[in-house]
């Protein structure tokens, strides 16, 4: 085989850009989630690539490109067989193999965002391996390896279905089996916003992905040594950029209308939605078609995020299901409507009828059903065998600490996550479970306090951050709704405990605490203290303290009311 230096360099450059997409996904997923899980998200994105690469070498490439049958390639450990029949013109085997390897890693990494903040790291490594070794290679064989969809004429130029919809469907099934994050839905079933901790990092991730998408789509021409390929690459680049831009503007306007202000995170999601949508037909549509696909995806991603959040109640912290699953499907099907006939049959809007569009719809449905069925089985098996979801206490504490022994991904800049001496967060003992003898002993030495309408008492509770939600619920049950909550750092008899970073001991001398201030009037101080102790007491060092002080007066700033009137709601 005669190799082409131009084609080989083009494919290798594309592989490098697609590899760098891992950084974009890592930044997006870390930024759109909470700080206490940032390190965990970074590790997952790293391991997608590092687990997937050897497994794709071991089995995936052969399954995807082997000359087997219409459904399955062949088992070829370490890529030793002859693939000359599927190699692009002038491109050596190993250049093509690395290009396909980084595509495989992209499919696996999509799932990390949808299942963020509550998935065990060990479970994640297992299902990421299954995606890289089995799910992606089989659907890839159908589409790109000479399988049955390729023979029907199904067109997915760079992976709206093969990569993105596969990742999106895996995300949907995984998030549904996993269940929502703690606190995501109230008792009334309505979703609560859980805001990501670092929007600038998420934005950087989006810009990295947009930049790298020129390699993802553009280098999928797998050649630049002819006039037709050069023209195709130019069209691909232009359509890719145009669709993303139109989708972004569409989402900005739509969220401005719906929410009264343009939503920043949703608009960034739309940029990726436009990129995902155009990936299937970026070589086959005119700029007008690319703009139309971008417009549809920009609107659809907003609707899809709201649907999964509010109606389906599938908690997806970064919007991966909507961006990759929904818009991957839409972009592939819409190619059947907007294809000009340059590289595919003509689409519906160019006089080609519904035949090509029907094949596109059939292909997306088949891939979705296969992926959903197998991944449901995989997730349920993992759940049964080792557990899919982290413990509630670990989730509240943050997976950085519980899974990796990492106090914070931002040491020195934000409050670090607490890690008790035993290495696990002890569960609080509910008040109802305390015995009468224990309750009597707890208050035996406390002097009786009487609160009159003119007597105000301040109750200051210092406790673990993870116990705040339980404490608020306990106070609400006894009618205490006015609280001031502050993040503080504690240094007392407990002091700090050593941890290790890169093998070097790190002495943590300050531990994070939450300070809750309550002013009591017409309520029993003993009742407040009892409810707090019953909720917070675990019997371990670090449960916290309660301070009781006299308050001379209370004044409402807005109205000037004083005393009891100032404490009333209104």
State the helical fraction. Answer: 55-70%
Q: Helix/strand/pairing class, anyone?
A: alpha+beta
Q: Can you tell me the overall shape?
A: elongated
Task: Provide the low-confidence segments as ranges.
Answer: 414-454
- How many strand elements? 6
What is the mean pLDDT? 89
Radius of gyration: 28 Å
The CATH architecture of the largest domain is Orthogonal Bundle
Tally of DSSP helical segments = 18
What fraction strand? 5-15%
Order of helices and strands: HHHHHHHHHHHHHHHEHEEEEHEH
Biggest sheet strand line-up = 2-5-1-6
In the CATH hierarchy, the third-tier topology of the largest domain is known as: Ammonium transporter fold
Summarize the main sheet: 4 strands, antiparallel
What is the first-to-last residue Cα distance? 82 Å
What is the CATH class of the largest domain?
Answer: Mainly Alpha
The CATH homologous superfamily of the largest domain is named Ammonium transporter AmtB like domains
Describe this structure in words.
The chain has 570 residues and is of the alpha+beta class. It folds into 2 domains: 5-396, Orthogonal Bundle (Ammonium transporter fold); 418-567, Alpha-Beta Plaits, CATH 3.30.70.120. It contains 18 helices and 6 strands. It has helices at 5-31, 38-65, 93-114, 121-144, 148-152, 160-178, 199-218, 227-259, 264-278, 287-311, 320-338, 355-385, 392-397, 399-404, 436-443, 468-477, 525-536, 564-567, and strands spanning 456-463, 484-490, 497-501, 504-508, 511-520, 545-551. The chain has a 4-stranded antiparallel beta sheet with strand order 2-5-1-6, with helices on one face. It has a two-stranded antiparallel sheet with strand order 3-4. A hairpin with a 2-residue loop joins strand 3 (497-501) and strand 4. Helix 2 runs parallel beside helix 4, helix 4 (121-144) runs antiparallel to helix 6 and helix 16 (468-477) packs antiparallel against helix 17 (525-536). The longest helix is centred in the middle third of the chain and has 33 residues, at 227-259. 49% of the residues are buried.
